[in-house]
Amino acid sequence: MSRLPKNLHLALSAFIVICMAFVYGAHPSVILPYIFGFEVQNLELKNIFRAVMGIYLAFGGYWVYGILKPNHWRSATIVNILFMGGLAVGRLISTILDGWSPQYGVGMIAEAVMIFLGIYNLKRYKD
Q1: Transmembrane segments in this chain: where (predicted)?
Q2: What is the pTM of this model?
Q3: In the chain, where are the structural domains located?
């Protein structure tokens, strides 16, 4: 593998996760029916999607912080690997139990790529 920019995995992950945060939480009753095909009218369901938005914004923000503050890069990279790993494993379990989702199958592959980029960069850039 050719030399990749040190912050590529963090920058890509932050951009995608922050964008998805707003997709899930900005206005779930309007946006999510178009994406998932179900109505979000229940207050508790709106709360769950907005909580997911908060989690995604927090993690995405930390990855940006890790880019801007080199002394946090390693921790941000480890957190990124764990976050993407958790998503990918959850999607893999869903694929095994529920079947292949074309919509989220691509996400699972992208998450696996981010895991490998993060691990590659951790090994390459030992501080």
Answers
A1: 12-36, 48-65, 77-97, 103-122
A2: 0.89
A3: 8-124
